[in-house]
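Researcher: I'm preparing a figure for a lab meeting and need a structural model of a single chain. I don't have an experimental structure, so a prediction will have to do for now. The sequence is pasted below. Please return the structure as tokens so I can convert it later.
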Amino acid sequence: MSDGTITIDGRPVPFDKGDTIIKAAYEAGIEIPHYCWHPGLSAPANCRMCLVEIEPPPGRDPLTLDILRWDAEKNDYVPTKKVKLLPACQQACSEGLSVKSDTSAEVDTARHAVQEFLLLNHPVDCPICDQAGECKLQDYWLEHQSSKKRMSEEPVHKPKGVVFGETIIYDAERCIMCTRCIRVSDEVAKDPVLDMRERGNRNEIVLSPGRTLDHNYSLMTEHVCPVGALTSSHFRFKARVWFLRSGDTVCQGCATGCSAHLDYDPRDNTAYRYRPRDNKAVNGYWMCDVGMLSYPEAHEARIERARVHGKDAELVDAIAQAKKLFSSHASDPSRIAIVLGARHSNEDNQALARVAKIYLGATHFYLSRRKDGHADDILMVADRNSNAAGVHEIARNLGLGDVRSLADLVRDIAALRIDFVISLGADIDGDESEAMDQLRRVKGFVAIAAHEGPLAKAAHVVLPAASWAESPGTYVNRNGIAQITEGVLKPRGDAHPAWQLVIALTRALGYEVGWKKRGDLQAGEAAQ
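Model: Understood. Here is the structure written out token by token.
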């Protein structure tokens, strides 16, 4: 429940205690033009684009300023008064406050002036700028200026193509000194590596002496840049944003499971970048560099064809071979090992776990997961698996007992307790060499995987699964928050959603399951 209501251009807008005008408007879906303000950062009020007019209470005169204004008839400046405008990013909300944004002539004039001022020295290089198509300078020029440049002098020239680090390149001529990048480093990454030097139109962003921009959130400095001053070396000159489409997804970089947008080109079915998707409960407004740079996994190191004993095969033939292996070597349920996948969706794991328990009678369950990595105290955690929590939740709900590690599977195979293995995923978080040696000893091994990995190399039969970017699915992060990712890319090669491959394999073994669509698995319906 809100703490009060203000009015913006005649529209009631609720606010919470401590909200500024621009924050309340942002939460209500109203855009007050701005450059320096960001909902996840402090507000320096240095761009002045968010100036608004505050209407005085009844019986009070408006706050005014004495100014000189050009009088065309007198051909001279004459003294007059104008309403004092206030920055919406710093003006706190109070009950009954009435604000004019798009309905004030004074505000419109101010925005026009701010735009002209920012563009005085800005290079007109939109055709080669990576920000073209999503640049606030372009958007606000159309909305609040739409006039030709009046300055005829040579613009101020500044450094271009400055390498700030492995991920970021800086163009000082395009920079409007909003200081968002400085504040991201200070307030989000806790590493004040950027600062501003010189004054006026000589301003530019610089690195601390002897430093590079190398913290875990360097790409967030590019993400928050409202113009084309900071560009990512990974996206730079790779694609035009008007050709890209976007889908809601979940970052696969670690167990935080940051909400993200995956931008892709439908013409070549290729992912080009990640962008954080606002989610206060999970990642706020941010993503770490590891997550931001994990999008190529949508199409790199992919398994696109089925394999039988290391050779490409048709999918139907591979399933037939898997049936043959199972029929020959998996008659005793106590000797079947089921490996669930910490990087596969709930639907994929639900399908395999239910089939294993209901039809195969398996009692040994293990987990395929990536090795742990570096962690920080911001977003990045050591667990590099997007759905380990979801797997353990499924195991509890289905009464599967403990889902053990692959190291336990290796020991069980060495002790001659396992003859047949079905795995979801291809990752091993322990000694890969020892694991592959033991896995090659089993009599039958079927791997369902989207990416190459040790399990896929050791398997007798490999079935190509769709990646998280190709198949809708549910992922549960380390805090137990479930999120759904959209399947925006077309599956590569012969890949199919893993849950469909599980059903196809189950039917080949002579069992008829009642699941026909992903929603059946989401609902957790029992097999018929």
